[in-house]
């Protein structure tokens, strides 16, 4: 499992598309085994899609993300959890792993 979160100042960013960095977590057997910060130099949706696929991303946790980006990610079998309250990324990944991550799909339309 490889999970990506847009981050800003050590917390989940309010905007997926405008973030400067992604926090990438590798998870195995319900445990975080690696955490890497990646710069977001892939503003083009096609390049972003390729980067996610090539890097084996399986899940995205975000506060706000455009509907068309969600469709592209879902097309590639990447799960998108949207409307997540901004918190420290590692905490959110632990919540996803434990099944306690809270989302709010209404954020997409706001």
List its traits.
110 residues, alpha/beta, Nucleotidyltransferase, domain 5, 3 helices, 6 strands
Q: How would you describe the overall organization of this protein?
A:
This protein has one domain (2-109): Dinitrogenase iron-molybdenum cofactor biosynthesis domain (Nucleotidyltransferase, domain 5). It has 3 helices and 6 strands, in the order ββββαβαβα. Strands 1, 2, 3, 4, 5 and 6 form a 6-stranded mixed β-sheet that branches. The longest helix is centred in the middle third of the chain and has 10 residues, at 45-54. It is globular. The termini are far apart. The protein has 110 residues and is α/β, with parallel strands linked by helices. The model has no long low-confidence stretch (mean pLDDT 89).
What is the compact description of this entry?
This protein is α/β, with parallel strands linked by helices. It has helices spanning 45-54, 67-75, 89-98, and strands at residues 2-8, 11-12, 21-28, 31-39, 59-61, 79-81. The chain is 26% helix and 29% strand.
> What integer value in Å does the Rg equal?
13 Å
CATH superfamily: Dinitrogenase iron-molybdenum cofactor biosynthesis domain
| DSSP E strands, number | 6
In the CATH hierarchy, what is the architecture at level 2?
A: 2-Layer Sandwich
- Write the H/E string, N to C: EEEEHEHEH
Beta-strand proportion: 25-35%
- Specify the number of helices: 3
Indicate the percent of residues in helices: 25-40%
User: Biggest β-sheet: count, sense, barrel?
Assistant: 6 strands, mixed
Q: State the end-to-end CA separation.
A: 29 Å
State the domain count. 1
Q: Tell me, rounded to a whole number, the average pLDDT.
A: 89
Shape: globular
CATH fold node name: Nucleotidyltransferase, domain 5
Low-pLDDT windows of residues: none
Structural class: alpha/beta
Q: Quick one: CATH class?
A: Alpha Beta
